[in-house]
Design brief:
alpha/beta; DNA Methylphosphotriester Repair Domain; 4-stranded mixed β-sheet
Length: about 350
C-alpha cells in the first residue's frame, strides 16, 4: 500500500477520525506512533513519517502512543465486522447491549466505534439493511406482505413506520414500476441545454439533461406519465432557479431511493457547499468507508436527480473533472456557475 504523505499529514492536522486504521503517524523525535485522530500536540512536519500500520512503525523502532492507543484500531475493526455479521445473520433487530457484549465494549463506547466506522449507529444500520432486503424482495416481483416479513419486519405497520418519508412511492408501486403513481414532467430549455424534470406528489424523482419522456418510461414503465400542470409549474420554477442561479435549494422536495450506502453518499453530496468540490476519496471517507472509493463513485453516478443532489461537485484526486453522466461540458458549466 502506498501512502500519500500530504493527505496523511492533512488528516493528522485535522485529527480526522475517518482515517484511523488507514495509517499511523510516526514521530521520530519522540519514538512514538499515533493514530491520525490523536489529541496530542502536533509535532513538526519534518519529524513525522507515515506507516501503513503499527507493525510497520514498530519495525522502525517506534512504540505506540499511550494516549491514543493506535493498535486498538484493528480491534475496533474486528468488533465492527463481527457486529455487522451478527446483524446480517439475525432475523430480528439486535439490541445494542447484546452487540456490545459480544465485542467486550460498553454499549456507549461500541456505539461510537460502530458509527465512526460505518457512518450509522448499529440500530440505523440494521434498519437500513432491512429496508434493502425489502427493496430487493419487492423488486423480485413477490407480494408486498411477503417481502416485508422476509426482510425481518414484524409486520406491515413496522415497515411503513420505519420507512415513512424515505420511500416516496408506496412499496407496491415501487415493486410494480410506478403502478398507481402519477408522474408529472416537462422538458425545458436552460443554459445547459434541454432539461427533463419529473416529480411525483412526493417530490422530484428525475432531473437530467438531454433526455426526454422515454427515460421516464424506462424507469417507471407502469406509472401514469402526464405533462406538468399548474401545480407542477411552481416546482418547475424552483428547479430552474436552482440550475440557473445556484444557491440554497434544500427546500425542493425529492422522491429518490437507493441502497443505504447510496443514500449515505447522496446525503454527503448535499452537504457540499456551492462553489466547493470534493474528491471521490473524500466522499468515501465522509460516509465512513474510506476504502470504498470505487463504490462511492458508482453511488455518485447512480444519482437520478442531477444538480439537486450535486454529484457534479465531485472530482478526481488529481484535480481532473472525472466523469459525469451528461457530459463534462455540462459539469464544467455547473461548477463555473457556482464558483462565481
Amino acid at each position: 500500500m502506498t501512502l500519500d504523505a500530504d493527505e496523511c499529514w492533512n488528516a493528522a492536522i485535522a485529527r480526522d477520525r475517518r482515517f484511523d486504521g488507514r495509517f499511523v503517524s510516526g514521530v521520530l523525535s519522540t519514538g512514538i506512533y499515533c493514530r491520525p485522530s490523536c489529541p496530542a500536540r502536533h509535532p513538526k512536519r519534518e519529524n513525522v513519517r507515515f506507516f501503513v500500520d503499527g507493525a510497520a512503525a514498530r519495525a522502525e523502532g517506534l512504540r505506540p502512543c499511550l494516549r491514543c492507543s493506535p493498535d486498538d484500531v484493528s480491534r475496533d475493526e474486528r468488533a465492527v465486522l463481527s457486529a455487522i455479521a451478527a446483524i446480517k445473520a439475525a432475523e430480528q433487530p439486535l439490541a445494542l447491549a447484546a452487540l456490545a457484549a459480544e465485542t467486550g465494549y460498553s454499549p456507549a463506547h461500541f456505539q461510537r466505534v460502530f458509527a465512526r466506522a460505518t457512518g450509522l449507529s448499529p440500530s440505523a444500520y440494521g434498519r437500513a439493511l432491512m429496508a434493502e432486503r425489502a427493496a430487493a424482495a419487492l423488486s423480485g416481483g413477490g407480494t408486498v406482505t411477503n417481502a416485508i416479513y422476509a426482510a425481518g419486519y414484524s409486520g406491515p405497520s413496522r415497515f411503513y413506520e420505519a420507512n415513512q418519508g424515505r420511500l416516496g412511492m408506496t412499496p407496491s408501486a415501487w415493486a410494480a414500476g410506478g403502478k398507481g403513481v402519477t408522474i408529472r414532467w416537462a422538458v425545458v430549455g436552460t443554459s445547459l441545454g434541454a432539461m427533463l424534470v419529473a416529480a411525483t406528489d412526493k417530490g422530484v424523482c428525475r432531473l437530467s439533461f438531454n433526455e426526454g419522456v422515454e427515460a421516464l418510461e424506462k424507469r417507471f414503465p407502469n406509472a401514469a406519465l402526464a405533462e406538468g400542470d399548474a401545480s407542477f409549474a411552481a416546482l418547475l420554477a424552483d428547479v430552474l432557479t436552482a440550475v440557473e442561479a445556484p444557491g440554497d435549494f434544500a427546500h425542493i422536495p425529492l422522491d429518490v431511493k437507493g441502497t443505504a450506502f447510496q443514500e449515505a453518499v447522496w446525503r454527503e453530496l448535499q452537504r457540499i457547499p456551492a462553489g466547493e468540490t470534493r474528491t471521490y476519496a473524500q466522499l468515501a471517507a465522509a460516509v465512513g468507508r474510506p476504502k470504498a472509493v470505487r463504490a462511492a463513485g458508482t453511488a455518485n453516478g447512480a444519482n437520478n436527480v442531477a444538480v439537486l443532489i450535486p454529484c457534479h461537485r465531485v472530482i478526481n484526486t488529481g484535480g481532473g473533472l472525472g466523469g459525469y453522466a451528461y457530459g463534462l461540458e455540462i459539469k464544467r458549466k455547473l461548477l463555473k456557475k457556482e464558483m462565481k
